[in-house]
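Lay summary. Proteins are chains of building blocks that fold into shapes, and those shapes determine what they do. In this project we predict the shape from the chain. Here is one chain we studied, written as its sequence of building blocks.
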Amino acid sequence: MRTLYTLVMYLMTPVILFRLAWRGLRYREYFSRWRERFGYFVSPELDRPILVHAVSVGEFNAAVPLIEALMQRYAERRFVITTITPTGSERVRAQFGDRVFHVYLPYDLPTAVRRFLDRIRPSFAVVMETEIWPNLFIACRERGVPIVLANARLSQRSLLRYRPVASLARRALRCCAFVAAQSQTDARRLLRLGADPQRLSVAGNLKFELAVPESLASERDALRALWGAARPVWIAASTHDGEDELVLRAHIRLLRMHPDALLLIAPRHPERFRSVLALSQQLGLACRVRTQHGQPQADTQCFVIDTMGELLGYFGASDVAFVAGSFAPIGGHNVLEPAVVGRPVIVGPHTFNFSEVTEALIEAGAAVRVEDSAELAATLERLMGDPDTRTAMGRAALALVGRERGAVDRTMAIVADAMHPKSAPFS
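And here is the predicted shape, written in a compact code that computers can read:
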């Protein structure tokens, strides 16, 4: 099975490269650093560093509290942080700068993986969420590099997708020194996929540990003073193709009842920034763009956030947050980012990527599920006219987040045991 998987990976490489080039036409960063994707880069000459892999922005944001805790406990060690996307790369550099060595994780080809490991020579690896790469995991085991799969989650859809390569997925998971699952449901699915029950436990969701800067309140007040302190403001975060028009039409309907309402819209992928701006203008909305105009003004109806790493501040300055990827069958995105700043959350029908957290917010009265653009508009109209309900939803969100914290400490204990096992690290 591994041979067949590797053959398919090699055969798919031209298709993957074509996709990268296609995305590069709209977001030029995809054209750069291609050699890293095959394990070619100048070795940082580090002494057996700790490797942390987070595929993109969301996974990296969740990993930040854990990385900071690792840096504090293992201050004598150097760290290598890998991502796959340019946006993830930008966030690593913005967050840690020269404190870490950053490089793209190579494609899961045996030769690329060997080159990567020869240059990095890690002593230990933390892999975030569901990044199960068989050739990488097997190569790490062969070199005696323990892996902790942290904040591990597995949706029912992903579990079904692994069926054709179930034996290989099991082998890869059994290369892990430990699997720290987000929830009991994730743990059960990971067991079905082949995780070792003796090396799996529920550590909780690291996304609950998202740190809120002390300056957030003052930044929020400054933004609201600039936009208009009393005007209704909502944010549509991480929208995908096909969702933008649904969001914009909901906003147009909201404007009928609240003519001064402001929509902050943050497309998920940078290559779509311009198309979202063009669409909002076609629909007749007065628009501004973060990189061109700085901030919205009193007459701005739609504000396109075309930057990375600023969503938390905009969540804090909004009255209501719609978390996208949930109208399209993407599975939804991180509903905890608005929750940790006490904002009411709205989601669409597709939230299987964050099913337990989303349901917990809904049951706590902190979130609302809508089915379509019309229901989104109606819900926004209701919430914008009811500040007491918004306040109650925000408090419910904060209470839930407070109850669920602790995943960093539990994961750190798992990492310590895996780095210094009392018995052989692998069966």
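What the prediction tells us: The chain has two domains: 2-204+406-419, 216-404.
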